[in-house]
Specification:
The protein is an alpha/beta fold. It has helices at 49-58, 93-110, 182-194, 211-219, and strands spanning 6-11, 16-22, 28-35, 40-43, 66-69, 88-92, 125-127, 130-133, 138-142, 151-155, 160-162, 199-201, 208-209. It has one domain (6-219): Metallo-beta-lactamase, Chain A. The strands form two sheets. A seven-stranded mixed beta sheet has the order 1-2-3-4-5-6-7. A six-stranded mixed beta sheet has the order 8-9-10-11-12-13, with no helix packed on it. The longest helix is centred in the middle third of the chain and has 18 residues, at 93-110. Bound molecules: zinc ion (ZN).
Length: 220
């Protein structure tokens, strides 16, 4: 039986929309849509085909090609990938490897959260350090920390960054789980600090301002 999930759809600025699912255990999960001039960017694909369906529905009358971005390989960010069989799916090189390696195990251990179908559909455009879409001013950079394959997406036009799970899940747990090297995470925070944005989206937390970066640096 399908568990009941609530989804909130919230406009962040002119061309960014946040789809937040509240999972029955009480945690939140964000999928972020950036509607660029050239492409629609969907950042993370959630818990499966039913969970990502409202995002596809939202842009069903928009003919721009979709670019999917996986911020890292964890199950709650990639299970909707197979809903985009004809799309470019971008991730870090390591994300593709880790998704392939951990797929069966992630389904086995967290299958109770699956919402619809999830077939293994790996990223088909991977990179090492950075990708840039100049027409949309969307930049994707390697930002290890939460995991070794974590990436971030910056909408330079609207000054919004999506840091994936590099910020903790709630205000009370603002420091994320760090599965990689702490040094690398600190370097990533210092990189964020130098960047030009005022709004910070992450995988599970509420929408925050840039000061959250300084706050985490002070707590580490
Ligand atoms: Zn994660």
């Amino acid at each position: 039986m399908r568990m009941r999930m609530r989804m909130k759809i919230e406009k962040i600025k002119d061309r960014s929309i946040l789809f937040t699912t509240t999972v029955p255990d009480g945690w939140n999960l964000n999928v972020h849509l950036i509607m660029g001039d050239k492409y629609n960017y969907i950042i993370d694909t959630g818990l499966g085909s039913l969970n990502i369906a409202p995002v596809k529905e939202y842009i069903k009358h928009d003919n721009k090609p979709i670019i999917v971005i996986n911020t890292h390989y964890h199950w709650d960010h990639v299970w909707g990938n197979s809903s985009f069989p004809n799309c470019t799916i971008i991730s870090h090189n390591l994300c593709r490897e880790m998704m392939k390696l951990n797929w069966e195990n992630m389904i086995h251990e967290n299958g109770q959260h699956l919402d619809g179908e999830a077939e293994l559909y790996l990223p088909n455009l991977t990179f090492e350090t950075e990708l840039y879409f100049p027409e949309d001013r969307v930049r994707i950079i390697y930002t290890p920390g939460h995991t070794i394959d974590s990436i971030s997406v910056i909408d330079e036009a609207e000054k919004i960054i999506n840091v994936g799970d590099n910020i903790g899940d709630t205000l009370d747990e603002i420091i994320p789980n760090i599965y990689g090297e702490k040094e690398e995470y600190i370097n990533t925070l210092l990189t964020y600090r130098e960047m030009d944005f005022d709004t910070c989206v992450s995988g599970h937390n509420i929408i925050l301002g840039k000061q959250v970066i300084e706050k985490i640096l002070n707590l580490l």
